[in-house]
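hey m, so remember when u said the tokens were messed up on ur end? i reran from scratch. heres the input so u can diff it against urs
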Amino acid sequence: MSSFVIVDYVVFCLTISISLGIGVYYAIAGQKTTSEYLVGGRQMKILPVAISLMVSFESSIMMLGFPAETYVYGMMFWLSNFGFLTSCLLATRMVVPLVHPLKITSINEYFELRYNSRYVRLLNLTMGYINYILYMGIVLFGPGIALESVTNFPMWASTLVVAVCSVIYTSIGGIKAVIWTDVFQSLVMFMGIFAILIKGTMVAGGLSNVIEINKNTGRLDILNFDPDPTIRHTFWSLVIGGCLRMVSLNTGQTTVQRIVSTPTQKAANRVLYLAGPAFFITLTLATLEGAVAYAFFSSLGCDPLKSKKISNPNQVVPFMVLEIFKEAPGMAGLFMASLFSASLSTLSSGLSSLSALAIEDVVRPTFKSLSERSVTLIAKISVVVIGALCVGVSFLIAKIKGPMSQISFSVLAAFGGPASGLFLFSVFCPWGNAKGAIIGTLLTAVVGLWITTEQNFSTTLKRTPGLPPGPTDKCYDMTSLTNMTFMSTTMMQNTSWQEATTSLVKESIPQRPQGLDRFYSLSYQWLTGFLIIVSLIFCSLASIIIGRPDPATVDVRYVLPFFDQFFPFLPKKLRKKLYGGVPFEKREELIKKLEEEKKQENEFEVPEVLEKLNGGSKEHVENKSEESSPLTPIDELNKEQTEIPADEVVLLNISTNKNNIE
């Protein structure tokens, strides 16, 4: 088997070095405040943020798992891209209008504001941490098995390379380094994908031959409208289930952190309008890679999985890359660079997000007297600790078999489903209360863990077989594989091969699962959506039993009017009646007032200067401000404006732009 040459190593190392260089640049440039380190001072540009958001979801799971999925099970998985696209567009109606006006850094901060309960905040923090660490562990696992298969470089060593590199530039450069390395890495990633598609199609006999080979083995049969939720892939599970599954990504810290890093709500919406279609295109390209790989190996007459030349479907694309680029030094290195870039972008985004959670949800509330420099230092240290945890998880993930796409979506649903359900319940269900939210979410998490454990480790559960593998009759001549390009046409016209394919399809029809196995056989595409529904039911029942709040007292700053967001064409009187007395008509005015308050707080972020000028600590001033305004937001709207005390007038005059004070 071919392997890396010096040029490949040069290309690969150059990519890693540039990523580190961007982090070093922003480390030298420095971050004056923790806000600048975590959210870029909320002044990041639309295009780089959109690209960063796109590649944050496109890790080794996309580069290896999506082609492996197509290679083994066919192109039907491509339909899930429509679910992803729809979910991104829906986020502009249910995530951006909620979190951007609040000017929060952590998504968990919203839950404390919504329920006035720190326990709900800590619950979602815990689920978010577990979910992200599992996700990043899977992301780290991908490059490891790929590099091991093409260079015999140990998986544990390559895992450490990715982890250490991402930890370094994330910890020293902050969110700005993460976003701009994402932009660079996206370019490398696209170069690798297009190189594989173009060269692979050429050596497989052309586009028409690729289509013919995949069509003859059923890999282009993508429409299955069977409503059975236990069938692995159907139109309904991929489109609707895919949309619900994407909710967990759009309501997660990575997305929220990028939304709030933009200066305006309109800019945040544009980020999602750009990221959604871009996400659709790149996932389509990754899916096509699997079809090209199958056509390539079929044309050569040697299926690497069936012939045991590779042991894992996630190794199909790296194996193909070495064969098609054996006469083009540097191209294999470019592919590995694109694979590592995809993983680095996702890992760095996750590390930055979890660092923000650690600061906003644990450090700031617990240690209020820490200086900005100390808080930023703790944020950097937390990146290192979280990176070490992800490395440990990646070694555990390696024990689970199957395409990385299925592994990730199945494992992450256990906590992503309950977290998504909690978010949707909090945003659209004004009858919710803190105890009901906690009880319902915990029960949903138990159900999610129960199902995912049985799905991944059950010894009696029947696995869905893949489509017929490619031929292996030419495997004896692997040294001259790339010279056998045009053999594919005659092979696929061979009657005996088509008959063998037909018999394999008949044998691969799975038997219906029985008993609890039928429940465990729920398609992994439906799992997140199922848990969201379970969460909404449990949280609603628990809240109603405990006692729902008076609708007139609901703080509508933290709840969205469902029918206004998704059914604005309904008559206004009908929508108001459906809200059952919740004063959503006052929301816009309250949000404007909140934004003005946040703006004043941002101008008041120089504690050392203000302490000297006002003869007291910042906490004293904040406490004094809180004590002077005991009324609820709804009551304040109806209260007549009063004269501002003289000492507060002086304070407001002093609190000019932060940079001018410095």
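this time it looks ok to me. The domain at 6-408+457-467+510-527 is CATH 1.20.1730.10 (Sodium/glucose cotransporter). if urs says something different then somethings off w ur setup not the seq
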